[in-house]
Amino acid sequence: MIPARTRVRTLVDSSRFQWFIIAVILANAAILGLETSPDVMDRAPWLATLGWITVGIFIVEIALRIFAHGAAFFRDGWSLFDLFVVLIALVPASGNLGVLRVLRVLRVLRLLSAVRSMRRVVAALGATLPGMASIGALLVMLVYVSGVMSTHLFRETDPEHWGDLPTSLLSLFQVMTGDDWANVIRPVTDAHPAAWLFFITYILISTYIVLNLFIAVAVEALEMQKDEDTQEIVAEVEEGEANVLAALAELQAEVSQLRAELNREGLGRERA
């Protein structure tokens, strides 16, 4: 007989089960959105019951995964995230902890753990943090130096946007994001035509060069994550083959035992 844990693991790791959980997550997300409308809840009070049914499905799923994977479940970050999100749903709606019920919307984020491609993107973003931090520090230095320079150069011309360092930094951030940046720099460029050179250089460096550096780091992290996912898939396939071979060995042992018993019974009948 195949062990119960192996059968449950096969169930929870199957693609059909995963797609079923994804459908439940999407249904739960729609219910959470509808619950924000008192009119909808008054007309369809059964939505609250349906929401609790989806929570019950999540609880059963987590219990099955804990049983199937054992201690390995608690060593996986995504599994712990799923457990946290499900436990949040069980927080009482009243009392001091009632405010935590707002966090139940995090159940929508379970899609991140249920869909492999989303997990890959999130893992890649996590892997980019060291590189992003270095590029972010470079950007901060660029904005700070430009802020000091623009304050000294333009505060007499346009004190509204360049009167002091904090104001200049805010104006430079607006210029970097492209939010109505032409009107921000127009009073200065009208008074100092050469100021265009300062702002164009700043925009080219902060918006295009630094942005491309961010993209390059993200693409590199995605490629690394893709290689890791390939290795993980190979490991899963090898584990599955090992489980199948173990099950076949058990079946072979049982068949051999049954054959031996039948042979003993046949010899007993012949002697009789």
Would you give an account of this structure?
This protein has two domains: 4-114, Four Helix Bundle (Hemerythrin (Met), subunit A); 117-272, Orthogonal Bundle (Helix Hairpins), CATH 1.10.287. The chain is elongated. The chain is 81% helix and 0% strand. With 272 residues, it is mainly alpha-helical. The model has no long low-confidence stretch (mean pLDDT 79).
Comma- or semicolon-separated keywords:
single chain, 272 residues, mainly alpha, Four Helix Bundle (Hemerythrin (Met), subunit A), Helix Hairpins, 0% strand
The helix/strand series, from N terminus to C terminus, equals HHHHHHHHHHHH
Helical residues, percent = over 70%
CATH architecture field of the largest domain = Orthogonal Bundle
The best one-word shape is elongated
The CATH topology of the largest domain comes to Helix Hairpins
| CATH classification class of the largest domain | Mainly Alpha
N-C termini distance: 33 Å
Strand content: under 5%
- State the major sheet: none
How would you classify the helix and strand content by structural class?
mainly alpha
> How many structural domains are formed by the residues?
2
Q: What multimeric state do the chains show?
A: single chain
Instruction: Give me the Rg, rounded.
Output: 31 Å
* Strands, total number: 0
Mean pLDDT metric: 79
Alpha plus pi helix count: 12
Unreliable stretches: none
